[in-house]
Specification:
By secondary structure, this protein is an alpha/beta fold. It has two domains: 59 residues, Orthogonal Bundle (DNA polymerase, domain 1); 311 residues, Aldolase class I (TIM Barrel, Alpha-Beta Barrel), CATH 3.20.20. It is built from twelve helices and 14 strands. Helix 1 packs across helix 2, helix 7 runs parallel beside helix 9 and helix 10 runs parallel beside helix 11. The longest helix has 19 residues. The protein is globular, with a radius of gyration of 22 Å. It binds S-adenosyl-L-homocysteine and iron/sulfur cluster. The site of iron/sulfur cluster has 11 residues, from helix 4.
Length: 380
């Protein structure tokens, strides 16, 4: 029998596991602290654990991190890691240092089944859900590696965003214990406001997250109406905008922040006109407290899409801001190492044929027409 990976548990799970071994709750707390706060993998290192418990654990459990395949460091300090998750699949995490915070962007799935037109992960199709252990191992590795590198025991990562590969709310049962370990004072002790789940809009799971583990919520909107959103984010056909906004409004009752962040990927000639900004305003104004985060599209081969000019992004943002909606433009980080939003590709053994489906769509659906004088520009 394979050893149980203790990274698969939040504190409640580890407590239940220890109780099965006849151990008291405080032993589980000690063990949890060794693993997550000190980064220990060797039970012998865990000096204040009873010897009897250490030897019980040795036979049946292990702390099994992910194997790193590669590390890339950007000129701006951003670090991208590629982790092996077996079976020919690999996922990516990105560390983004800023003066007042350290953010880790984490993957939740090998690939993604949603298949958004503008997303490199979506084009790769879907292989499988990550386990809780594989999700939390990304934070475990980044935090303890960076601490060791910087020679400190201080916390490095203050913010986590579930914005790497995958749709976190389509891997709900593994996600929630991972979030709980991030928030736990005996784990990483992150504030709920500083842990963000980003979703393309899995409405029933937004409702469940509200009860199970309310953290900050970012919703990938990308379009002001259903016909366009159906095309860009296929999940919209199942959960259209009106249902999505109702779920967001509901979520705010329990959310640690009093607004929802709407992410909006700016695609030249597709969703970036002033009229579309007005349409967005009509959609949300007076209905839901929100902020917009405009993401300049990060190109990748085969998308068939163009990035909006920066002047267009700014003008679009101004229309929203003039209507009183707080709007930010996402800074692109780690561009030189393909670590920007939507560029995370890892390696995915597609089981869904999504990559072929999306390629066919790119040919049949007209989404971007070159502007005059830009005829020779190739899709990026
Ligand atoms: N599946 C989740 C979280 C991962 S994607 C979601 O869709 O929200 C994280 C963010 O990156 C989303 O807002 C997504 O729309 C955006 N994104 C995806 N591809 C992108 C690209 N090529 N350029 C810019 N942003 C992109
Ligand atoms: Fe999946 Fe998010 Fe990419 Fe859409 S944007 S394909 S939901 S990872």
């Amino acid at each position: 029998m394979d050893a149980v990976n203790l990274l698969d548990y939040d504190l409640d799970g580890l407590t239940a596991f220890c109780e099965q071994l006849g151990e008291k709750r405080f032993r589980a707390t000690q063990l949890f602290r060794w693993i997550h706060q000190k980064g220990a993998t060797d039970f012998e290192q865990m000096s204040d654990l009873a010897k009897s418990l250490r030897s019980k654990l040795k036979g049946i459990a292990a702390v099994t991190p992910l194997t790193v395949i590669s590390e890339h460091v950007s000129a701006d300090g951003t670090i991208k890691w590629l982790f092996d998750v077996g079976g020919g699949n690999a996922v990516e995490s990105v560390y983004i240092p800023e003066s007042d915070r350290g953010t880790l962007c984490i993957s939740s799935q090998a690939g993604c089944a949603v298949g958004c037109r503008f997303c490199s992960t979506g084009h790769q199709g879907f292989s499988r859900n990550l386990t809780t252990g594989e999700i939390i191992a990304q934070l475990w590795y980044a935090e303890h590696t960076l601490r060791a590198r910087l020679g400190t025991t201080d916390r490095i990562i203050s913010n986590v965003v579930m914005m790497g590969m995958g749709e976190p709310l389509q891997n709900y049962s593994a996600l929630v214990p991972a979030l709980k370990a991030m928030l736990d004072d005996h784990g990483y002790g992150l504030s709920r406001r500083r842990v963000t789940v980003s979703t393309s809009g899995v409405v029933p799971m937004i409702e469940r997250l509200k009860d199970d583990c309310p953290v900050a919520l970012a919703v990938s909107l990308h379009a002001p109406n259903d016909p366009l959103r159906d095309e860009l984010v296929p999940l919209n056909k199942k959960y259209p905008i009106d249902e999505l906004l109702t779920a967001c409004l509901d979520y705010l009752e329990a959310a640690p922040r009093d607004f929802i962040t709407f992410e909006y990927c700016m695609l030249d000639g597709v969703n970036d006109s002033d009229e579309q900004a007005q349409e967005l305003i009509a959609l949300v104004k007076g209905r839901i407290n929100c902020k917009f985060n405009l993401i300049p599209f990060n190109p990748f081969p085969q998308s068939g899409l163009y990035r909006s000019d920066m002047s267009r992004v700014q003008a679009f943002g101004r229309v929203l801001a003039d209507a009183g909606i707080i709007t930010t433009i996402r800074k692109t980080r780690g561009d030189d190492i393909d670590a920007a939003c939507g560029q995370l590709a890892g390696e995915v053994q597609d089981r869904t044929n999504a990559s072929n489906r999306l390629l066919r769509q790119a040919v049949t659906v007209k989404v971007a027409s070159p502007k005059p004088g830009e005829r020779n520009r190739q899709p990026q």
